[in-house]
Amino acid sequence: MQTLRTLTQAGILAILCTGPLAAAAQATPEQTADTSASRAFEIVPASDVQWEALNPARGDKSPRAATLWGDRNADVPTGFLVAFADGFSSPPHIHNVSYRGVVISGSIHNDDPDAAHHWMPTASFWTQPRGEVHITAARGSRNLAYIEIDSGPYLVMPPVEAYDSGERPVNIDASNLVWLDASDPMAGDAAATPPNGHGAQVAWLWGSPRGSALRGALIKLPAGFTGTLSSEGASFRAVVIAGGLDLQVTDADTRTLAPGSYWRAEGNSTHPIASAADADTILYARTDGAVEVSRATPGN
Length: 300
Hints:
The protein is mainly β. The chain folds into two domains: 12-21 and 177-295, Sandwich (Jelly Rolls); 49-175, Jelly Rolls (Sandwich), CATH 2.60.120. Helix content is 0%, strand content 42%. It is built from no helices and 22 strands. The strands form four sheets. A seven-stranded antiparallel beta sheet has the order 2-19-16-21-14-13-12, with no helix packed on it. Strand 4 (64-69) and strand 5 form a beta hairpin. It is globular and about 60 Å long.
């Protein structure tokens, strides 16, 4: 990781701007404005997460799970990590709630029991509708995914209880993501790309780039990027998907965040950041307000 430098504002990238949320997204308590004088901040490095069985009924055959925020056993929005052993394949099953998933490492397949395997690599995105029969499989030495639900509890149920919720699954391989520069009109009210053309990019996953309701996107920072990340919504949550990030919390506290790490900020919040020098960094961001990424002026 590079050392964070003194920053000046250069090339503001309004990555996640404001508009109505798509009908598929549900309102949650996170959309309540934060009017308190102090703004909450939380950070969970991947090395500090607490692992347990995702489905205790399967014993040693269960994937492992680590809650990053929320409580998957309660009726609240939740984000958690799931780790699969190499060669894992679940029996056909359903869930009582819908979820979103982003592959962090390894290769993951999620589809109908009879579907041909489609192995999704890092930064791939999928959704699993509640009530739909499916299997999940994994291959690789380290298979890790971030899973997000809008309400709980998160339960595993047998296929005989299947039903059609009206939702349809989405599987987007990382190679099919559409990355937008800030100068692209589809990126919303974004300012011009930084002068040297190596700015952050965004790939929308769910919700709308406009409005004050929740939405989710991937943010890509090029290797060696140094700058700031600012959020303005009532709630901002980020999970490191690929690469690595130095996040400066205070003048005396900089955290190095590996894939699987998480942080949360509420209200107006600005933090100096630096991505890994040898690889792009990809973040998953869940927010209800504007997020801006500013790059440091070269030489400062």
